[in-house]
Write a structure and sequence with these properties.
With about 450 residues, this protein is an alpha+beta fold. It has helices spanning about 25-35, 60-70, 85-95, 115-125, 195-200, 215-225, 255-265, 270-280, 290-300, 305-310, and strands spanning about 15-20, 45-50, 75-80, 100-105, 110, 130-140, 145, 150-155, 160-165, 180, 190-195, 230-240, 325-330, 335-340, 350, 350-355, 365-370, 375, 380, 390-395, 405, 410-415, 420, 435, 445-450. The strands form six sheets. Strands 13, 14, 16, 17, 18 and 25 form a six-stranded antiparallel β-sheet that branches. Strands 3-2-1-4-11 form a five-stranded mixed β-sheet, with helices on both faces. Strands 5, 6, 7, 10 and 12 form a five-stranded mixed β-sheet that branches. α6 runs parallel beside α7.
Length: about 450
């Protein structure tokens, strides 16, 4: 990366930093790193937008500090007159900015040396690219910068949460290491976009409230409406990942859930069924008027969500497509179904059993794939195969221990061990096991929907 030479003539950036009651040290660390590590020919301004902070030190003290430290006006302080939330505050920050390119950055970051040139260079090549730096971690306790961003890019879960996924690993010494990596989604706190293009494609959805879902909505919209989203390895920015949520939610509203309904209804077509499978409570939720966003989609002549899945995120697992069967895995004798028991699926854990919810719980939805995996969105069933051993959910792989055979005999057989899935006489909230195959009804299972068996 250090050997790459960039043109002196690149679009100039307005870096937009939104803050609300941010700590003095982390806010100024962010701003100083931007100004100090951005060549002046590329930095038009830093727009520091205060979303109605009520801490005294962020009022006159901050105003005076900015005036004394940057008398040339490179840092501008803009304030909202009421609490807007991160989404509407970013719209306000973008409207206040006058540079060629908008770079949105959270208020608890550190820009690294050489961070801005790769972003501006990529946009200068194609104004329809939205580009993100690689995100390194800053420890939230020690505030130490750790250059561990690696090659992770963005994905999403069907519950419409952002997820990190591994990009194509490239050796650091390879010339290909510096090439941008296409990404289905972005985290949303750190990205660059040409200012006019940002507004051409609809900025943010102003009907979304406070925080949540806006990053996926923008990601889907960019791809579906003719743009591209990339991570740029030679641009690196540190970010403090906090142990608690930095935003307050007026009225304790589930803003992520409500915003995600708006996203699903406008952009996901029939695939919104998977969001509602996870969030049945949102089916009756008032999500406001989305007519303007639907008109925007038509005006921009955007493609379908199926096109997005096929062309941008082809490895995204779809529970009811290209599978043998899917839905509840039910033991008739006990009326128990396999169930995650609401455990964190980013961890490895034993799969449990719970009274069948007849499609009312996403925790009971599994798919039997053509590779004979019994799986969830990212994890597959596996077991050691010993008599009475439990069955775990682990990240899917090609391990033979993850192969299960299910046929019209209604057994589910672990291929590597030849053992059968068995309730073991367990109760609801207990754990399923494998045992030597018999004809016992505790080993008889059916799936809710058979597509090809």
């Amino acid at each position: 990366c250090k050997n790459i030479k960039y043109s002196k003539v690149l679009p100039k950036a307005s870096v937009v930093v939104i803050f609300h009651n941010e700590a003095w040290s982390s806010l100024l660390r962010t701003v100083h790193s931007i100004v100090n590590r951005s060549p002046p020919e590329y930095l038009h301004e830093v727009v520091l937008l205060d979303d109605f902070s009520d801490q005294d030190f962020l009022r006159e003290n901050l105003k005076a500090y900015i005036a004394d430290t940057w008398p040339d006006g490179i840092v501008r302080l803009v304030r909202t007159t009421k609490r807007s939330g991160i989404i509407r505050a970013r719209i306000a920050g973008a409207k206040a900015a006058t540079g060629d390119v908008l770079i949105f950055m959270d208020s608890h970051c550190e820009a690294s040396t050489g961070w801005i040139e790769p972003l501006l260079s990529r946009i200068s090549e194609n104004r329809r690219k939205v580009v993100c730096p690689i995100i390194d971690s800053i420890d939230d306790m020690t505030l130490e910068y750790s250059g561990n961003g690696g090659y992770q890019i963005g994905g999403f879960s069907w519950s419409l949460h952002f997820t990190f996924k591994n990009g194509s690993p490239r050796p650091v010494e390879s010339s290909e290491y510096t090439l941008p990596v296409r990404s289905p989604t972005m985290a949303g706190g750190l990205f660059a976009v040409e200012r006019k293009y940002f507004f051409e494609i609809g900025a943010y959805d102003p009907g979304m409230d406070v925080w949540g879902g806006e990053n996926l909505e923008l990601s889907f919209r960019v791809w579906m409406c003719g743009g591209q989203l990339e991570f740029v390895p030679c641009s690196r920015v540190g970010h403090i990942f906090r142990s608690r949520h930095p935003y307050t939610f007026p009225g304790n509203k589930d803003t992520h859930g409500i915003n995600s309904v708006r996203l699903a209804e406008v952009w996901m077509d029939d695939y919104k069924r998977f969001f509602y499978m996870h969030r049945r409570d949102m089916l009756s939720q008032d999500y406001g008027d989305i007519s303007d966003r639907k008109v925007l989609r038509q005006t921009l002549n955007c493609k379908s969500f199926k096109w997005y899945l096929d062309n941008v995120y082809p490895d995204k697992f779809i529970p009811d497509e290209n599978v043998r069967a899917w839905g509840m895995v039910r033991n008739a004798e006990s009326s128990l179904c396999l169930d995650t028991l609401q455990k964190d699926e980013n961890t490895v854990f034993d799969i449990g059993m719970f009274f069948c919810q007849n499609g009312g719980s996403a925790s009971q939805v599994l798919s039997l794939t053509y590779s004979n995996h019994l799986r969830r969105e990212e994890s597959c069933l596996t077991t050691s195969g010993q008599d009475g051993s439990t069955v775990q959910l682990q990240p899917c792989s090609y391990s033979s221990n993850m192969t299960w055979i299910h046929d019209k005999s209604n057994t589910i057989v672990h291929q590597a061990s030849g053992k059968c899935l068995d309730t073991g006489g367990g109760k609801s909230e207990g754990y399923v096991v494998v045992n030597v195959c018999t004809e016992k009804p505790t080993q008889k299972w059916t799936m809710q929907h058979y597509l090809d068996l």
